[in-house]
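Obj: model holo form, ligand = zinc ion.
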Amino acid sequence: DVLYPSSSGSEVPLSDPPHNKELEKRTYYPRLIQTLKNVFRLQSFRPLQLEAICDAMEGLDVFVLFPTGSGKSLTFQLPAVCQDGVTVVVSPLISLIRDQHRALKGLGVDAEILVQEMSESDRSDLWRRLRGNGKPPSLLYITPERLELDGMRSVLTRLRQEGKLCRFVIDEAHLITDWGRSFRDSYVQLKTLKTVFPGVPISALTGTANPTVQSDIVSRLRLVIRQPYKLSHNRPNLDYDVRYKGKNVLGAIADWIKSTYPRDTGIIYCSSRDKCEEIAKILRDKFQLSARHYHAQMADTDKSHVQREWSSGKVRIIVATVAFGMGIDKPDVRYVIHHSLPNSLNGYYQETGRAGRDGKLAHCILYYNRPDFHTRLSMIRNQPSKENRTFEEDDIRRVMSYVMNDVECRRKQVLSFFCEDFDPARCRRMCNNCRDATPCVTEDHTGDAQRALRLFENLSRDSRLTPTQLSAALKGSKAQLQVERGWTNDPLHGTCSHLSQDVIDRLIDQMIWHDFLSIRTERSQDAYSQNYLALGSRANALRTGQQNLTISFRAGRKGTARAQQKPDSRAAHDVAPDEGPSTVPLRSIPSAV
Ligand code: ADP
Ligand code: MG
Ligand code: ZN
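Output (holo structure tokens):
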């Protein structure tokens, strides 16, 4: 069953519609095209770029939600170059500011940055220009903290009064909401921009925002937009595959690379610095592959040397930690292989997103096994700093349930993380689940869901629960927290112990999906947000049996509820000895609720 050519080169058409031809009639359109070609050296607009650019040219606020790498910057850079006055770009990271500055300078654009580490003469030059001695730059990049400083405010106020303050741009605008964990104080202060600088339009840009975050950004910044511009996170040219990680995983990886992409470049991600070095060495010495390692502890000169060699194609394979990637813009990366579990689904999306930027077919393969998962969990639990522990634990569990869900389209699963409802038919068998011809078995878990709901209601009377805590309670966990809070005394504690933890997690996911349960994000005193479960608006439909709940499995595959009740059915598959419990107590499942 050959689904795609094994060599690179098949062009996958993008499904996004071309821009509205009406926009080409705008009086400023010829200038846009000219600047696009002559200054930015680009040939045409990508989807929704022109729409956002036209709104900016007309002085409107703009909201842009495009996935990373799809070209958000042009939506404000092009108008900034075409209009008079200065466009102030607020960006969270000095390194991002420097990258954009360097790129713009390379194109001959009048862009400036104001950062701590800059020469005294550059700094005073810039201040002179901002104070009206000479023309202010077209673009000024700063961090949000700097925008709060009095000196900056008064200079910008003056510019506004003189009609020379063109626009504010908020890059990574999701940082303004406290719904995510990446909340940042000085970003929150940006909500005053409309009052402090009335009449100055704002562009808000982000690559990740669920619907709550989207509306929060728009309302906090008080944006008045024509319409939000959103592109799907779907990357149609990426093939997603999840594979079991056996003993000879490196041999399997080497074989796959040699037979599929012998002459192309790729990235192999792994979890630790030592692993990177070790794997790169094995790939070189044992498999004669052109591989080098890359991680954060290397000297800067070594890092940029390796990166250059890889970018130029001299080195084909880079074996790296997640430190590798930010600002990598190599268009023809043909594969991204995860030798170990990514930290989160978001991370997985970002890391795999480095493949196939040229729009041509590229492969993403994720290797997993349970021991890796457990190691990661215990590392998270044992780390000294408590702050992000629950988050990290939730993240890695979501990765694991992604990996274990061998039925649903991989794209659908990844995109649901971004709250996109993806129609699996659009995958066109570009993931291992859509390709898998093994029949699916659908089991009714309505009874389990009803009891899960009752247990949730019992336990949540006295304290709030996270999804992870409910999952553990359903499994019958005797963990300290469960005992301390008296949860283990509930007659329904352990009511789903006949199911594997993964199935229980999928059950809870589905309950949230159907709105029997809902998620409430709350900030605790120490400013970290936490996801708690709450009753969903359709809980009653489950209670009364109006709505049932089913879960699908591949027939006879390990890890399913059915296979766990009949351990011998696992024999057909190569089950690693260390994977999962080998015997599961057989007990009758109470069917009445
Ligand atoms: P984002 O901020 O959305 O992650 P960027 O604005 O940094 O993405 O753009 C990513 C890459 O896409 C850059 O290399 C940029 O030059 C390129 N790019 C942007 N717009 C176009 C276009 N219309 N045609 C070709 N390349 C483009
Ligand atoms: Mg960007
Ligand atoms: Zn699919």
